[in-house]
Amino acid sequence: MTTTDPFPTSLLDDEDVRVLLLENIHADGADFLRGKGFQVETRDGALSEDELIEAIQGVHLLGIRSTTYVTDKVLAAAPDLLAIGAFCIGTNQIDLAATSKRGIAVFNAPYSNTRSVVELAIAEIISLARRLHEKSTDMHNGVWNKSAAGSHEVRGRTLGIVGYGNIGSQLSVIAEALGFKVVFFDIDDKLALGNAQRCSTIEELLQISDVVTLHVDGRPGNAGLFGADEMAQMKPRALFLNLSRGIAVDTAALRSHIESGHIAGAALDVFPVEPKRQGDPFESDLRGLPNVILTPHVGGSTEEAQQDIGRFVASKLRSYASFGGTSLSVNMPEINLPVDSTKHRLALVHRNAPGVLATINGLLGEHEVNIEAQSLSTRGEIGYVLTDVSAEIGPDVLKELASLPETVRLRQLT
Length: 414
Ligand SMILES: NC(=O)c1ccc[n+]([C@@H]2O[C@H](COP(=O)([O-])OP(=O)(O)OC[C@H]3O[C@@H](n4cnc5c(N)ncnc54)[C@H](O)[C@@H]3O)[C@@H](O)[C@H]2O)c1
Prior knowledge:
The protein is of the alpha/beta class. The chain is about 30% helix and about 20% strand. The radius of gyration is 26 Å and the shape is elongated.
């Protein structure tokens, strides 16, 4: 395996692949990559731009979490970098346009913590229905308030899920097992799981749900999705949860609906403005309200999720470095050509222009290189083609391929 810099004349063996993992990524990630023969360096903290530029020299695979920023300046100073693993969900900390331009693949872990969010939502729904948080606070204050008033079972109640994606749909299945009738609203066509029923409008869902829970994504149109109008349409004494995006909810409106008693309780894990660092003060309209559970954006934060993220992203990095696989990449066209150890593989990232495949194949044909398998995919301005051939490709052919005006990056993998 080699990069286009200067020209791909020698293979880079797995033992020569250098990996830098920052920000205390779960040890399973490093163990997995070491098990594949890669050289792995780990560091606990995040790095500043200058520190990263220094640390990234000679590094082929970089692993970060949410506080290391990978800017165009960093990428420009990292000619050997093949891929970045964001060992988290978000990728805002990476200049994705710049990675695509340079043919650097980015991977993240979009599903690893979904079960953790679902379990917290279930715990909070039951806690709110039984007013557990309030009763526990009373007890800590020395108050023995043994009463059934305002405490309910969830069995037979209607749960309204807004956003039926990875999290919303898992929640649907578990909530039904608890005896909930589940209804949902999603702007996309989604398959209803179990006995869940689709609502054709959010208004319909609000009018019939005893519990409303938001699991929408962060698209710009979702800012202010849930305000005074939506709250007013909820059933009296219904419960409300948001573990998705802070910007989706008008917290001042929620406060007034809780104070008026129209909404009987709420659980919020995400906020329009969240403290940047551990220990920074937390300000919100929702502080100090009864039967309101506030948690510091920990819906997906479990040791199980961290472990899963570690393994998942490490396996994506390995697959890309060794075999060129890009399935679930954040920025690259998705290709997963089956690995055949008897073949030699070329991975070429190119500008998405007409005729590139014909040029590559014409060039290989001229040099009597027989193509055994090939897959091409494009995404925006970038194209990616994996080509398996029966014999190792000579340096002259590689040099010609690397010199094509459309070539962004070329690697010979095996
Ligand atoms: N609290 C946490 O720690 C935590 C952890 C993980 C994920 N999340 C957040 O949870 C949310 C859901 O995650 P996911 O993995 O299920 O995402 P997803 O992309 O799989 O699902 C989101 C769903 O919401 C739907 N949707 C978007 N806007 C909508 C709208 N206005 N009305 C109705 N439906 C709408 C989409 O069509 C999609 O089906 C995301 O915002 C994610 O960032 C929070």
